[in-house]
Amino acid sequence: MIRWMIVIFLALVFISWVTPLLQKLGLGKLPGDFRFKVFGREWFIPLTTTIVLSFMVSLIGQLL
User: What keywords were assigned to this record (predicted)?
Assistant: First the structure.
């Protein structure tokens, strides 16, 4: 249980570190990435970006 919590924590830290770099490349602004404001907070749901990154990771995994 502790091992999984550490893995999830490290994944979230990595994602928060990589997100600005990916936005400079244009990911996060694809058609299908939803950004809206509700109750004074801005919400971001990156559906298309998630699919593209998942495809890229699976392709790299198959090549290795």
Answer: Membrane, Transmembrane, Transmembrane helix
Q: Which residues contact 23 (CB under 8 A, 6 or more apart)?
A: 29
Instruction: Report, as ranges of residue numbers, the positions in the chain whose pLDDT lies below 50.
Output: none
* Domain boundaries defined on the chain: 2-63
Give the C-alpha separation, 44 to 32, whole Å. 11
Give the DSSP H/E element, type plus range, for residue 46. Answer: strand 41-46
pLDDT at 59 (0 to 100): 94
Q: Which whole-number Å values give the CA distances from 64 to 14, 50, 61, in the listed order?
A: 21, 21, 5
The pLDDT value given to residue 26: 81
CB 22, CB 49: distance < 8 Å: yes
Please state whether the predicted TM-score (pTM) of the whole model is above 0.70.
no
